[in-house]
Amino acid sequence: MDRKVDVAVIGGGPAGLAAALKAHEAGARQVLVMERDSYPGGILQQCIHNGFGLHYFGEELTGPEYAQRFVDQVEHTDGIEVMLDTMVLSVSPDRVVTAVGKAGLITVQAGAVVLAMGCRERTRGALGIAGTRPAGVYTAGCAQRLVNMEGMMPGRRVVVLGSGDIGLIMARRMVWEGAKVEMVCELMPYSSGLNRNIVQCLEDNGIPLYFNTTVVEIHGQERVEGVTVAEVDPATRAPKMETARFVPCDTLLLSVGLIPENELTKGTGADMDPVTSGAVVDAARQTTAEGIFACGNVLHVHDLVDNVSREAAIAGENAAKYALGKLNKAETVRVMAQGGVRYVVPQRLVKGEGKAELYFRVGAAFKPARLTISCAERVLVSKKKLVMTPGEMEKAEIDLSQVDGDVTVRVEEG
Amino acid sequence: MKKEFVCIACPVGCRLTVWDEGGEVKVAGNTCPRGKAYGVQEFTAPMRTVTSSAPVKHGDQAMCSVKTDAPVPKDKVPDVLRAIRMIQIKAPVKVGECVLRDVAGTGANVVATRRVRDKKR
Amino acid sequence: MYDVVVIGAGVVGCAIARQLSKYKIRVAVLEAKVDVAMGASRANSAIVHAGYDCKPGTNMARVNVAGNAMYDEWCRDLCVPLKRVGSLVAAFSEEEMEQVKKLRDYGEKNGVPGLAILTREEALDKQPGLSPEVVGALWAPTGAITCPYEMTIACAENAHDNGVEFYFDFLAEKITTLRDAVEVESDKNVLFRSRYVVNAAGVHADEISRLMGDDSFTISGRKGEYILLDREASGFVQRVVFQAPGPLGKGVLVSPTVDGNAFIGPTAVDDSGKEDTSVTQAGVDALKRAGVRSMPQVPANRPITAFAGIRAIPSTGDFILGQSKANPRLIQAAGICSPGLSSAPAIAVETVESLRRAGLNLVERGDFNPVRKKEKPFRAMTQEERAAAVEKDPRYGRVICRCETVTEAEIAAAIERTLGKATLDGVKRRTRAGMGRCQGGFCAPRVMELIEKYGGIPMEKITKNGGASKMIVGRTRQEEK
Fold it and tell me: Which chain A residues touch B7 with a CB distance below 8 Å?
C-alpha cells in the first residue's frame, strides 16, 4: 500500500470537489481527490455558457467560473490534495483504490471512498442510426470541448439530434462561431431542455426545432454529406418513412442522453439501479458497498450543477463520518417510484429522526402534477405543482420520524 | 403591436402576450410577477449575456472562456461576437479579468471566466 | 525495378508481402487508401473457418483448410490474437440437419479434422443458451476467432521489417505490360516497374486484372452488416454459432470477438456495389431476428456500434489464384470473399509458388525475421507489469482512452508504427482507443493531439479514415496558426 487517506474522492469535477471540501469540513484530515484530466473542474470547464449557480451561489455564473469557486477553496485547504492526470483503474470492496499517473501506479487505502466520476454521452452506435460511418458525427459534448477549449470547428453546416440542454447550447455555439445550424430534431413531443435555452439558443438564432422527429440515416462515405430525417409516430416512436427527407449537412451533433459512468462502481460490488444506471444509495449517499459513497452524475444524471454540489456535500460529509467511525450502520427501508415517477434517489432510507430530501424525475410531462409520498397508508407529502417535466429534477422533503416501512413516491395528472 | 413570448423565468413556460397600450406595456398569460417582468423586458429591451472563448498566447490552455460582464442588447450580439473574435489573451489571466473594455459600445466589458496560467516549461 | 509489386494492402496482399519477404527479391505493396486493411479486411466476421462449407475440389476448400492449420504459427510469430473456440452449425429442422450432415461430408472430403455431428443436448452443452429449438449441430473444433485488421497490420509490419516497401494513396490507373516487365502507373503519375504483379485488390481485383488484359472474371460487392455488442453484455456466447447455410453465404452468426465483445452478422446484400458500407435499418432488424433465432438471450438491445463490409464475390464462384492465362506477368489472388481471412496464409504460400513457377528466381534470405513484436496492451498487464511500464516510460501513466484503458505510450507507438498515414480509425484499430462505450466521445480530441504530436500531421489535416474524412474543418480563430 503506497498510502492511507481518510477519504478518497474519485473525480475532480463539481461533485468530487464539493464532496472533498465537505469531507474536510466534517473532520476528515486527509482527503485525496484523483482526477484524470490535467485540470480540475470536470465537464464544467467546457460549459462556457452562463446559467450555473443561481441556486447555490445566488448569482449567475458560467461553468468555468462555477468550477473555479470550488477549485479556489480546495487549493486553500491544506488537508485536501488533488492528484491530476491520474486515472483510477479500480476500487476494491475494501476501499483500496488503484490508480495510474505520471508518477506510476498508486494504491491507496481509503477510510471511505466517494465516487464522483460523472457521466458520458450516449453515442450513435448505442442509438443505432442507420447509414454510413463518416467523419462529422460528434456527440455534442465532444464538439463542445473542441470548439470551446481547443478552438477547433467540427463542421460548418450542422444538424443537431436531441433537444436536451447540451444540444441547444451547442446549436447556438456553432452559429456564434459562424456555422449554419439547419435544425434541431427531437424524438419526443417535448424538449428536455430549459425554455430559456429554447428561446435564447434556438429562437434568437432562427434555428427550427422539430418535435417527434429523428435522424434515420447518415449519408456520406468519408465526411457527412447529409442526414435523412423523418417524423415518428408519437405513440410508437417508429419513424414514418413517408415523411423522410434529406437534409444536406457536414456535421451531425448528438445530444441524446447521458449515462452515468459506473465501471468502477461495479467493481466494488455495489447494487445498481437499472433506471438511473447509478448505484443504489441511502440518504447519506452510501452505496450498498460499505464505506463507498456516490454523488453527482455518476449516481444519477442531474439537471443543474447546483443540485450536484448539494448532493456531493451530503456524500462528502457522510464519507468523513464513516472514515471517523461516526456513521452507524442501521436498517434501511426502500423508496419506490410509482405512477409517473421514473426514479427516486436515495433508493433507501434509514428510519429515525430528522428530515430527508428525496430527488426524483418523472417519465413524462405532467401539467398540472400531483405528488404523493406515502409510507404504507400514511401520506407523508401531498402537493400540487403546475408542471413537472422529465428534464427537471424534482425535490421533496419528508419527515423521517414518520417512516416505519417502505416509502412510495407517486406523481399523477391532476 | 402584440408580441408572443415563452416565459423563461421557470419551467412552466407560460405563453406571454405583450403589447403597448398608450405608452404602458401590458403582459397577459403570465402566472407570476417574474413572468410579467420578463415579458416587459423582452418586449422593450431584450438583453443577452454573450459567452465565448478566445485564443491565449503562451498559456497552459489553448483557449480561455470569456463573457460579457453584463447583459447586452440582443441586437448588439452579432457586434459583440465580432469584437470577441478579435481578442487574443496573453497568459496569465485570472477569472474576472477584463480582456476587452466597453465591447461594441454596449458599456459591458468582456472578462475571462477561467484561469489560464503561463505555459509550463 | 521491383521483382514483385502487390496491388492491395488487405489481409491477402499483406500476407503475400510477408511471405515474399523471406526471399532475396525487391517487393513493393501499392495501396489506394491511406492505410492497410481499409476494405473487407477491416469489417468481416473475424473467423478462421474450419473449412467444411467449401465445395470439395475448389481453391476455396484447399486454401481454407491449409490456411486454418497455419494460423497458430502465424499468430504466434506475429503477435496476433487467436482463440480456437470451435464453431457450431445449428440446425433447426430435420431438413436443416440434412444440410448440416452435407457440410460434415464436405468437411471430411476437404480434410477438416475433428468434425462431429452433435445431438441437441450435446450442442446445448457446447454452447449453453443456444436456442432450445435446435435439433442438432455440426461441431468443428478447429474453428477459431482472430482479429482481421490486426492480422493485416501485423503481416504488413513484419513484411516491412523484412524489407518490403509500402506505398499508400496509390491508385493504379494504367498498367503497361512490356516484354520483360510491367509498368504500374497511379492516378498521380507515379510509376513502378516490376517483373511481376500480384493482384490482391479486393473488390477492385477485376479492374486491375482488366488493366493487364485479363477479363476472365468480374467481381461484385456483397455487403455484410454487423452489430457489435457491449462487452458487458457479451458473456453469453463462447463459440462461433452458425445457422445452417442459405443461398447467400454462411448465414448470420453469433460469435465472441477476441476482444471480449460479441457480434451478430453478417447480412448478405448482393450486388451492393463496391464502396457502400452503409448499415440499413432493415439489415439491423434482420440481424436481431436472426440472432435471437440462434440464441434467444442475445442482448441485441446493447449495441455499441453497427458496421458493414463489402465482400468481393467472384463471378467464377471460386477464388481466382495463380498465374493469369492472359498475362503471364500477372499472378491472381482475386475474388477473395469468405473464407479469405482463413485462407490468407495459404494463399500467400501458393502465390509465392506461382511466382516461382512463372519464372521468378526465389532464393531464401538468411536473415528473415518471422517475428513481429507488439508490446502488451496496458489493459492486459498485471499490476506489476503496469508499474514497471510506467517506470520505464511515464507515458504509460497517461490514460487517453478511458473506456478501453489505452495509454499515450501505446498510441504513440501505434502512430509511429503506422506504415501509411496515421488516422483516427487507424489508431483505433491498432490500440482500441475509441472502440469502447463512449466510441471516442472523450478521447477523439486527445488522440488527434497525439496524431499531431507523434505523426506530425496538423490538426486540420487529420482524418478519420483518409480521403475527405477530415475531423475538423478549421480553427474557430483563423488568424491563429
Answer: 195
Q: What is the CATH number of the domain that holds C425?
A: 1.10.10
Same fold for the pair A1-120+258-329 and A123-256: yes
Q: Residue C437: what pLDDT?
A: 84
- Residue ranges of chain C whose pLDDT lies below 50: 480-481
Residue A126 pLDDT more than 70?
A: yes
The pLDDT of residue C232 is 87
Out of A64, A150, A389, whose CB is closest to B114?
Answer: A64
What is the enclosing helix (H) or strand (E) of A346? none
Report ipTM for this prediction: 0.94
Residue with cell 491565449: B56
Q: Name the minimum distance, in Å, from the CA of A377 to any CA of chain C.
A: 39
Q: Which residues of B touch A (CB under 8 A)?
A: 5-8, 11-13, 31, 48-53, 55, 61-63, 65-67, 74, 77, 81, 95, 113-115
- The predicted model gives A158-186 an average pLDDT of 97
Question: What whole-number percentage of chain C has pLDDT above 90?
Answer: 94
Residues B82 and B60 in one domain: yes
Domain count, chain C: 3
Active-site annotation holder among C18, C33, C42, C49: C49
Write down the domain spans for chain A.
Answer: 1-120+258-329, 123-256, 332-414
Domain hosting residue B19, numbered range: 3-44
Cβ of C445 within 8 Å of Cβ of A147? The answer is no
Torsion, Cα of C222, C223, C229, C230 (10° steps): 130
Across all residues in chain A, what is the average pLDDT? 95
- For A342-375, the pLDDT digits (tens) are 999 999 999 888 899 999 999 988 989 999 999 9
CA distance B6 to chain C (A): 32
Quick check: C463 and A156 in contact, CB under 8 A? no
**C99 in helix, strand or coil?**
helix
Residue C174 CB-half CA count within 13 A: 9
Cα–Cα distance, C238 to C86 (Å, whole number): 9
Write out the residue range of the structural domain in which residue C71 sits: 1-83+145-218+315-374
Element (H, E) at A320: helix A305-323
Interface residues from chain B to C (CB-CB < 8 Å): 53-55, 85, 88
Q: Is residue C49 flagged as an active site residue?
A: yes
C399–A105 C-beta distance less than 8 A:
no
Query: pTM for the complete prediction?
Result: 0.94
Residue A42, Cα to own-chain centre: how many angstroms?
Answer: 12
Asked whether residue C470 is assigned to any structural domain, the reply reads no
| Cα distance between residue A358 and residue B31, in whole Å | 27
**Which pLDDT value is given to residue C480?**
43
Query: Does residue C469 form part of some domain?
Result: no
Q: CA of C219, closest CA in chain A: separation in Å?
A: 21
- If asked whether residues B31 and B68 sit together in one domain, one would say no
How many angstroms separate the CA atoms of A214 and A230, rounded? 6
CB contact under 8 A, A150 and C402: no
Residue C474 placed within a domain: no
Domain end marker among C354, C374, C394: C374
Q: How many A-C residue pairs are in contact by the CB < 8 A criterion?
A: 143
Nearest residue in B to A367, CA atom: B12
Residues B48, A391: C-beta atoms closer than 8 Å: no
On whether the A332-414 domain is CATH 1.10.10, my answer is: no
Domain A123-256 sits in CATH at 3.50.50.60
Closest-CA residue to A9 (of A130, A134, A111, A77):
A111
Do residue C480 and residue B54 have CB atoms under 8 angstroms apart? no
